[in-house]
Known about the structure:
This protein has helices at 22-28, 79-82, 88-102, 118-121, 172-176, 182-190, 194-204; strands at 12-16, 33-38, 48-50, 63-66, 108-114, 127-129, 142-147, 162-165, 168-171. It has 208 residues and is an alpha/beta fold. It is globular and about 50 Å long.
Amino acid sequence: LENNICKKKNMKILIACEYSGIVRDAFAAKGHDAWSCDILPTESPGNHFQGDILEHLDKGWDMMIAHPPCTHLAVSGARWFTEGKKPWSLQEDALDFVRKLLSAPINKIALENPVSVISTKIRKPNQIIQPFEYGHNVTKKTCLWLKNLPNLKPTKIVEPDTVLVNGKRMSRFHYDTFRLPKKIRGKVRSRFYEGIAKAMADQWGNDG
């Protein structure tokens, strides 16, 4: 008799704008053909395209997880535009890049960013998650724009470690990074969380 048991399909997955390899390796550990892409070389051994992500969007991917740079998108830095310290064209270029990623010819897409102008200029996110919902004691609102993917479910809720600064609560991790040299501060803050990456691979990588 013919075996009608459905086996999980290993997918071809692109991780856009990632050099850490964190999300790529989470999906690779599940058996998927996962590739990261960034203008920087990868920090860990693995499948990686170094260059322009826009040149790789039409290569038959089943899924893309995208991490577009938030430098000119984050709400926290909007004042630099309104005060005239940055030209608005930088924000428009960043938004155009996001639109190209979201409209890529890929069936399943997840795009992540902190709270940003994407919500008002393009569309609101499907959900907002926190690292402390995935095992990290950090508060950092992370927005997810999804295409043909379900909302991500929390996997391990822990108590966030916060500190009171000028009457407001903020993540101790974020506060501690102020002591870092400015040239590496942004890189440390933007590093993706392994717990969220694993949740993505576990929850989105099993329904190929």
